[in-house]
Amino acid sequence: MHLALRYWRAIRSAALESYNEGIGKTLEFWTLVVLIAMGVLGAFFLSLYRDEARWNSEFEQYAVATVGYVVDEQTCSNGTRFGHEYCYDILFTTPSGEEVIFGARGLVSYRAGFRILQRPMPVQYLPYRPTSARLVGARNDEGFLLGLGLAINGLALFCLLGFIYALYWRHNLQELLKQLEDLMARRCYAEAADFSMAVPNTEYRDTLLATLILRLFELKEVQQAQNILARENLPDLKKAFQAQGMELRYGPAPRA
What we know:
Among the domains are: 63-141, no CATH class; 187-256. 55% of the residues lie in helices and 19% in strands. It has seven helices and five strands. It has helices spanning 2-21, 27-62, 142-185, 189-197, 202-218, 222-229, 238-243, and strands spanning 64-77, 84-93, 99-108, 120-126, 129-135. Helix 3 (142-185) packs antiparallel against helix 4 (189-197) and helix 5 (202-218) packs antiparallel against helix 6.
């Protein structure tokens, strides 16, 4: 519960900062927009999968078989050397005398030729909705829609968790930096160094120490900075300085 509260505070803090800085100009805002868009897109494909799965289930349970005839055809796309893919308009008649025309796709060999009008084809339809018809054996590929929807939502969820963790990490660092600044404002430089060294997270610790040392040099507290740099247990801060766009070279103090 305590951890969830800290995550919530981190998200709230980032939202307030985005509002204060102009919400349309912040990286956090646009990252969240992209994640929401990915979630909506994934949900769209999953809804298509649900519809296709329901369609296939209806045909498996209630479909009635009959014979239809091709009344029109056209080339949909070129196939491989094994055949062309054509689109057909197929006409069939229900027991009540209703004539229904529906569209279908299929592979026809070269030897069969393109002009196959009036060719009989086995079809199946839903008796309570005859306009829902398809060729016997045809099946909508709902597996592709399911995989695509899950992949997009999975990626969105992974990125969202990383985004939340980044906000949480930054929020904690800002809280630590506030405490560090408070100690420096009271000129408690040794206590500030001890506070930074006592932080268990190495990334936080190195960032705090690098910030402290750079601030001391900015404040012309060179001796205080050198005292911290002379500590035997001081970790390697090269990466922490580079992260702040600085390179600190230090050695023996020059003689007067």
